[in-house]
Write a structure and sequence with these properties.
elongated; disordered N terminus; Pnp Oxidase, Chain A; Thrombin, subunit H
């Protein structure tokens, strides 16, 4: 059984240039003018202020997707602080020097602060590797972009210990394996004595892993409402 806890994260609008995106950042592009509404991975290239946003062409099964001029798309991503959604239109697709797309300059970008991130109930197997290289099989019982709660048969260490946690989440129908460094924030023995509940915070999460965590938690939240 999975359940979502409400999020109080505020939504804000801002200019694209204030997001401080870096070239190569992973994004998800979704067309609003077809029936499938499938999301495809693209990469941020850059922008010409007040004129155009540049991203790589999406591919499916090794083939570039046809992008029609005027087609409306939403480009989503996560920059470590904000989950953002950019609604824009295709100006033109180019094939040289590599396949990329010019998108119209968005007047504003819808953003949600996820520092105090949405937390969802899950039931995911997790492998915890301790600083002494020993490992423990645990269960992840809730998850957010910033951390998780583990149900472990053994104590994983004192507050401040840095274990590594490995687990997999569903991302657009594919299992994505994550291996994240963490720090233990709290640990308490379960009332029935069968193990420990251990709260962990993720450390040094890459933009790509942060994007995967964001989409997994928010997609699960939408499904359980």
């Amino acid at each position: 059984m999975m359940a979502a806890k409400p999020s109080n994260d505020p939504s804000v609008s801002m200019g694209l240039d204030t997001l401080k995106l870096y070239p190569g950042a992973v994004m998800q592009m979704q067309s609003l003018t077809d029936d499938a509404h499938a999301r495809h991975e693209v990469r941020y290239i850059g922008f010409i202020k007040d004129k155009s946003l540049l991203i790589t062409l999406p591919f499916l099964e090794g083939k570039g997707l046809w992008m029609q001029e005027g087609q409306t798309v939403v480009v989503r991503g996560f920059n470590g602080i904000y989950a953002y959604a950019i609604t824009t239109q295709v100006i033109r697709a180019r094939s040289h020097p590599f396949p990329y797309i010019h998108l119209s300059w968005p007047l504003k970008v819808e953003c949600q602060i996820v520092r105090h991130s949405l937390r969802v109930g899950v039931s995911l197997p997790a492998k915890v590797t301790l600083p002494d290289a020993s490992s423990v099989a645990a269960s992840m019982v809730d998850l957010s972009v910033s951390g998780a709660m583990l149900d472990s048969p053994l104590e994983l260490g004192a507050v401040g210990t840095h274990p590594k946690v490995e687990f997999a989440v569903d991302f657009e129908g594919q299992a994505m394996d994550l291996s994240l460094p963490t720090i233990i924030h709290n640990s308490s023995e379960k009332p029935d004595g069968s193990g420990f509940h251990v709260g962990i915070k993720f450390e040094n999460v890459s933009h790509n892993d942060g994007l995967i965590l964001f989409y997994f938690t928010h997609t699960l939240d939408q499904k359980t409402r």
